[in-house]
Amino acid sequence: MKTYGLRDIIGPIMVGPSSSHTAGALRIASIARKLFGGTPATARFTLYGSFAATGSGHGTDKALVAGIIGLAADDPNVSCSFELAEEAGVAIDIVWDTATACDHPNTVDVHCEDGDGNVLDMRGVSIGGGAAVIRRINGIDVDITGEHTSVVVHQHDVRGVLAHISSVLASCGINIATANLHRTEKRGDAFTVLETDDDVDGKVREYLILHPDILNARVIPAMSATDGEPVEVPADADEVFARWNYTSGAELLALCEREGATIAEAFRAREEALCAKQGASADIDAYLDRVLAVMDTAATTPITAPERSIGGLIGGEAAKVTESLNGDDKKRHLMDPLTAQAAIYALATLETNAKMGIIVATPTAGSSGVLPGVLLAMRDVRGYSHDELREGILTAAAVGYIVARNASVSGAEGGCQAEVGSAAAMAAAAAVAMAGGTPTQALDAASNVIQCLLGLVCDPVGGLVELPCQKRDATAAPVALVCAQIALAGVENLVPFDENVAVMDKVGRELPMELRETARGGIAAAPSACRFCAGC
């Protein structure tokens, strides 16, 4: 199971509109590019499941092309990737296969070729929040999660190859975390996939391919690697991480009690320990500052400079609500300033997301308006400080990690409750922590949200992260504040947080396929929505 860190839950910082369908797809194509060894001459992408049903509206095709030509998830040029690919001489073919069933709804097959006869066939799945897993390479089943730096070796299945691989890594001072051999048949072609605790540089590949039975070797950097410089792994890294790690709400509360820490302090310590274990500098405050800066821009720009979305369904809503609340007729001011500002910021963030602007997935792009809406409103209306906002983000990440680990934050897997519901639960816990509540009250607030938004379906009109996504974000932000206030008042929950997460997971998986991001049910199937989609 993947070990989620701060950047997995509060992030990625990315071009919208979808963390699973845009950032996750880009990640898959980026891995294909690394495995292929550079930019191919031709690339064919075959999309299945939710990818095929809603990928056009999510910009999945643009993201795949962006990844194969080397763009990053937060590069504003993702939206014009087809033009850039044409300029680079890369022939692109997109196949939307809505008929073939796959184990995971966000599945894509990537086929790359060049003029020298090199070919790569790879299957990847996007598992939510911008993360991805590689399931197959050249017909051989593999399992590359991206938690660690991976070395992927294509070889003949003969004696001595594994010994050569391990000796090369040992001589380069690289510790192997896991090693798995995947093969078609005895003495046939095989892939050895090694996950390492250390960064791997280019010289390792040069040494590996000296063996005559090694056909190729590629390095895939860790998916959640920080922007900081590599650091030496402390001798007690595993022990320190075990001290601060937790896997459930109950364990988190016990950890806070044992260490005399807030949730934010506990998660900060866990993140520092996780990064140390992975040989990376944490740079937590620098990352949080960047997150807040991106959130601020995404939540404020559309209020004064609105633009229409890529799909044309939204644009200008935040400005309209702001104008209505600035009017003289007080009878039309139905929200107090805090909840009103939270809703406006959430509306605005989704406008930024829908025009393929840069946002922070929290925990997904489709739910990226909820947490900024609450945090920035508390700053602007109630005067919370920058440091208190950092505390709120860390608290939100601590809660989101539990949901991602034990349930899902992907709409294709668990419906909108997994995205907007999780985001609102994170925001409610953050609000409680910033207001001085206890760790127990923070989890009670998150539980309140899950119960209120349980069963929320994912039904994007036309497959676009626009309608009803924007309004759900805007209403979920005030819901988070209400649920936080209930918890702060000392109202306890009969059902504990972990049980609420388990119920949300069960309900999400029981939702029919039509209500899990396929744009074939719910609001997306209403007559007016179908007319917008030209009868899709």
Explained architecture:
This protein has 4 domains: 1-138, 60s Ribosomal Protein L30, Chain: A; 148-221, 2-Layer Sandwich (Alpha-Beta Plaits), CATH 3.30.70; 237-277, no CATH class; 284-532, no CATH class. Strands 3-2-4-5-6-7 form a 6-stranded mixed beta sheet. A 4-stranded antiparallel beta sheet has the order 9-10-8-11, with helices on both faces. It is an alpha+beta fold and 536 residues long. Helices cover 49% and strands 15% of the residues.
> Helical residue percent?
40-55%
Shape: globular
Q: How much of the residues is beta strand, in percent?
A: 5-15%
The total tally of domains equals 4
Q: Give the oligomeric state.
A: single chain
Q: Would you report the number of β strands?
A: 12
Question: What is the topology?
Answer:
Elements: H1 6-9, E1 13-15, H2 19-36, E2 42-48, H3 49-58, H4 60-68, H5 81-87, E3 91-96, E4 106-113, E5 119-128, E6 131-137, E7 140-144, E8 149-156, H6 161-171, E9 176-183, E10 189-196, H7 202-208, E11 214-220, H8 237-244, H9 249-259, H10 263-277, H11 284-304, H12 317-325, H13 337-354, E12 358-360, H14 370-382, H15 386-406, H16 411-414, H17 416-434, H18 439-453, H19 469-488, H20 497-510, H21 527-532
Parallel strand pairs: 2-3
Antiparallel strand pairs: 1-12, 2-4, 4-5, 5-6, 6-7, 8-10, 8-11, 9-10
